[in-house]
Amino acid sequence: MASRRSFMGFTLGAAAAVGGVFTLVGMKKTWDPLPSVKAAGFTTVDLSPLADGELRTVEWRKKPIFILKKSSDMEQSNTDIIAGDARYTVVIGLCTHLGCIPAYHSADKEFVCACHGGKFNVSGKNMSGPPPKPLEIPPFSIDGTKLVLGEVGKEYEEIMKNVGKA
Amino acid sequence: MAHFEKSNGIVDWLDQRLAIKKFMQVMMTQYWIPKKINFLWAMGVILLTMFAILFITGLLLVMYYKPDVALAFDSVNKTIMQEVEYGWLWRHMHGVAASVVFLVMYIHLLTGIYYGSYKKGREIIWISGMVLFVLFSAEAFSGYMLPWGQMSYWAAMVITNLFGGIPFIGPELVEWIRGDYAVGDATLNRFFMLHVCLLPIVVIAFVAIHFYALRFPHVNNEIAEEIDFDLEAEKYLAGKKKEAKVISFWPDFLCKDIFYVCLFMIFYFYLVCFHYDFAMDPINFEPANALKTPPHIYPEWYFLWSYEILRGFSYEVGLACFGIAQVIFFVLPFLDRSNVVAPAHKRGAFFVWFWLLVIDMIVLTIYGKLPPVGINNTIATIASVTFLALLIVVLPVITLMERKAK
Asked: Pick from B180, B293, B296: which is nearest to A37 by CB?
């Protein structure tokens, strides 16, 4: 009798556990971004109209993307994106501290986040303040002078190997 | 089937089916309250009143509010504020109540610490109260997002970003919480769900647990006297009301609570009518813009102290300390190693500790609002370290010494 009761108990427990896991997976997926949100995750930008030293902000996946065409007096970095004969800084314009948008001060050649005083240089490297790491580089690929944001190209993979190295 | 008699009236009819007489005894007429308690013990009933106001005004607001990034801002600032009759009143009552409820909660919490009401038999009251504090914080934050102004948006951005600091799964977790690559429509709708459905249900459940937890250890009193409630209740029921150290919650005690609720309502409606803007950040009257951050982001006043702890350190350390600050008060009954239950002014070092904690939290609150530049950063770090040290190091040491001295 006792073993039949405990068998019922185990069966109930096992059925509840399996059902619970499936329910949790289903609930997790309900919270995931929708397919339409994911599909809208690509943005193409033509880089050719940019002037030397000019910063352009474009929107990609609701995040601001800073595209800075480096002029010759700006420091070069191994995270620069090279398209044609020009070097660009392409970074997600959200402070790596808590996600505010830093402002570009063209006179000092730096990005300054007003929220907590974080500073990044023209290559997006964190120089001072609380940000723990450089501005992030979005996945991209290059097609002539066109930059496709959201697509992982070989140039992106190349640059990601350099991230973290000085 | 149970035996029912023909009832002699509606009360008797209900009593046979729901035992309402017994229920009234347990909840009201034979729920014993110590006589020696001061106005600080009225905060619980004031909080209950504020919650009722928030609930009712919330129902009225939710009838016109639209949880959609394209419509939310106008549904609040145009439809509710200008078109709905008395919509402005419900909104201001809701907004002001959401703010002052924290003021009363902090007084309630500090009263508990001052009189040692978290100790020896009252731990569950304390812990369920802290759960309520966290739930109210989540409720306040999710509600703050709904008008979809600039501060709403960037508060949501910053708070959801905090989860990015969790090792390994951080960035994916942030995307999952938001349901989008950035704070968006999916985020607004899920916070709307939390604010109007899930969290209120859980709050109500925990209010019930919090009250139930009072039944056995009973309410503490001003001199932390240990009272034999059964004995005192007997005296009271025998008619020796003067001699008994307790009185019944209803009808004797509640009149005092209601008096303080009335005083508080004067203060509350003064704010609602003349200073409703103190709970409304001007930046939030600008619609949310994902491509422009306000120059200076800060939370509402009641979160400033913990926000300042977050800012007081470098990124990872700040996140960890912020996390600790959120939960440290939960374990207060176990950090306080002394089993002396007495008001702080009878405990020497603990009294000094208590006021240092209050002052430190005020300093954190003031500097949490100021921009983090220059000397402000130094003060933030010192005050944050002091806060953590007071709770984690100083309190256990003081109370261990107290225990040895006994």
From this structure: B180
Q: What is the pLDDT of residues B176-231, one digit of tens each?
A: 999 988 899 999 999 999 999 999 999 999 999 999 999 989 999 999 899 999 99
A37 and B316 within 8 Å at the Cβ level: the answer is no
Q: Is B162 on the interface with A (CB under 8 A)?
A: yes
- Could you tell me whether strands A63-69 and A55-60 are parallel, antiparallel, or unpaired per DSSP bridges? antiparallel
Lowest mean pLDDT among A68-72, B146-150, B332-336: A68-72
Q: How confident is the model at residue A166 (pLDDT cuts 50, 70, 90)?
A: very low
Considering only CB atoms, A114 lies closest to which of B180, B295, B314, namely B295
Question: DSSP per residue over B342-394, as a string?
Answer: --GGGSTHHHHHHHHHHHHHHHHHHHHHS-S-THHHHHHHHHHHHHHHIIIII
C-alpha distance across the termini of chain A, in Å: 72
Is the Cβ pair A33, B157 closer than 8 Å? Answer: no
Amino acid present at B27: M
Judge residue A140's burial from the number of C-beta atoms within 10 Å of its C-beta, 0-12 exposed, 13-18 middle, 19 or more buried: buried
pTM value? 0.86
Model ipTM? 0.71
Pick from B176, B291, B316, B321 the residue to mutate for testing the A interface (most A CBs within 10 Å): B291
Instruction: Read off the pLDDT of each residue in B99-117 and give the average, rounded to a whole number.
Output: 96
CB contact under 8 A, A32 and B182: no
